[in-house]
Design brief:
By secondary structure, the protein is mainly beta. It is 4% helix and 40% strand. Strand 2 and strand 3 form a beta hairpin. The termini are far apart.
Length: 125
């Protein structure tokens, strides 16, 4: 069990509401966001990606310090949240965000998964 390797996912394989994801991504840019009505906690929206595409990563609290432009992040147990019909990558309390070794890949910025809009369809049986 201790010898079990994590399965790493590429950005272009992400789908709505995926959970338990492990990714290695590079921060393309990071922007701190002021949340209206909330005085506690810090929040930043970061554009992160790998050689297959990019997506918005929602960094919270201590994650904001790690998500600096140019850093390579190793995300463990990440998930996909939906915000206004588009995907956002997030790591909650059960996951980890660590700064990894500098990326040896170049980020594919022409494939932005956060620009794809999804529509929820409920099927009544």
């Amino acid at each position: 069990m201790a010898d079990q390797k994590k399965q790493f996912t590429k950005v272009n394989q992400l789908r709505p509401l995926d959970t338990g994801l492990n990714l290695t991504v590079k921060v393309v840019n990071a922007k701190t966001v002021v949340q209206r009505g909330r005085t506690q906690g810090r929040f930043a929206e970061c554009l992160v990606g790998d050689e297959t595409g990019i997506i918005i990563f929602s960094a919270r609290n201590d994650q904001v310090d790690l998500a600096k432009e140019g850093n390579t992040l190793v995300l463990s147990n990440a998930k996909i949240d939906m915000f206004k019909g588009s995907m956002r990558l997030a790591v909650d309390r059960s996951g980890r965000v660590e700064v990894g070794d500098p990326a040896t890949f170049s980020v594919e910025e022409s494939n932005n998964l956060s620009l794809i809009e999804f529509e929820r369809i409920d099927v009544v049986v």
